[in-house]
Amino acid sequence: MENINNKQCARCQSQSMMYPVEISESPMPFQLKVTPAREAGTWLNLTASKKFDVHAAVCGNCGYTEWFADKPKDMWEKWQAESR
Q: What does pTM read for this prediction?
């Protein structure tokens, strides 16, 4: 997330956004795993997946929570390269 100091809550427009917020009990950051869908008719996906760190921002007013990927462009490139 680029500039959390100017971030407004998408639900209530409050400026009381907390970022980054650790969501899990684990000391490891939460990650999304990007793995393209299998081709039709295949029973095994041999494409290597890649994990990307994500962080949460939580509104201190209404509790609305958003997730943000650290490297969205890298995630998109991985998806595009392997989903063809």
A: 0.60
